[in-house]
Amino acid sequence: xxxxxxxxxxxxxxxxxxxxxxxxxxxxxxxxxxxxxxxxxxxxxxxxxxxxxxxxxxxxxxxxxxxxxxxxxxxxxxxxxxxxxxxxxxxxxxxxxxxxxxxxxxxxxxxxxxxxxxxxxxxxxxxxxxxxxxxxxxxxxxxxxxxxxxxxxxxxxxxxxxxxxxxxxxxxxxxxxxxxxxxxxxxxxxxxxxxxxxxxxxxxxxxxxxxxxxxxxxxxxxxxxxxxxxxxxxxxxxxxxxxxxxxxxxxxxxxxxxxxxxxxxxxxxxxxxxxxxxxxxxxxxxxxxxxxxxxxxxxxxx
Length: 302
Ligand code: CP
Known about the structure:
Layout: H1 14-29, E1 40-45, H2 51-62, E2 66-70, H3 84-92, E3 97-102, H4 107-114, E4 119-124, H5 130-144, E5 151-155, H6 162-171, E6 177-181, H7 190-198, E7 203-206, E8 218-221, H8 232-238, E9 257-259, H9 280-298
Parallel strand pairs: 1-2, 1-3, 3-4, 5-6, 5-8, 6-7, 8-9
Helix pairs in contact: 1-5, 1-9, 2-9, 3-4, 5-6, 5-9
Bound molecules: phosphoric acid mono(formamide)ester (CP).
């Protein structure tokens, strides 16, 4: 991993995932406040973010490093017409590593080909969100005490939700069984279903999920991604597709956990927040440890 970019979750191997999870656990239990001292991370957010950007900032500053960058394209010279190519070339001169979020699918791969330093993809359009996946794996491992042979239920916007695309690819290394629950307009794209079929993994597609709650080890809820719709009428049709409520959990397995990359809109009722199944706020905290571990591995810091 030393010196490598993390653009797609498949850039790293199963062994890499497990090494990152071990290191994240170590950072959670034994923080290393000086590990990033003298390191500068560039944070280029062309799209809005709360968790990803701030947990990267927290991860770097808690380890003694510095983070520089912009939180929206409008405060950068992109507004003057500067290209992504030039922006990456310039910021590469100032940092040891770049974390980038961009609306265009493939932008992070392009940046990694242009940059002289590693790129971490913090989300490229509807494509991939690999650091979210690392914190999701960490959360699943912590709550289920394993990653192998789990029944994973992905719910919501499976078409545009980049977090479910990355998570599916990573969990395919651990012999998961998948249930995909979405409106018919927002089904899991064929490319990801073929990815599973080529690995001999099972999945089922549903439009309702009341009946499959009892089978799930993890229910991974997602928001309908308003910003990816070209037609607002299509968004209106699907935006309230699911609303998880407490009474729907009565037949759930005792150890089942509800994850959500957040932000939520209305797909998880707030009455769920106080249930033992709710894990999404701790999941977001886990992002700090997972991102510390990813940065440490990529920068080759011990
Ligand atoms: N999970 C996630 O990517 O959240 P933000 O958009 O707030 O970064």
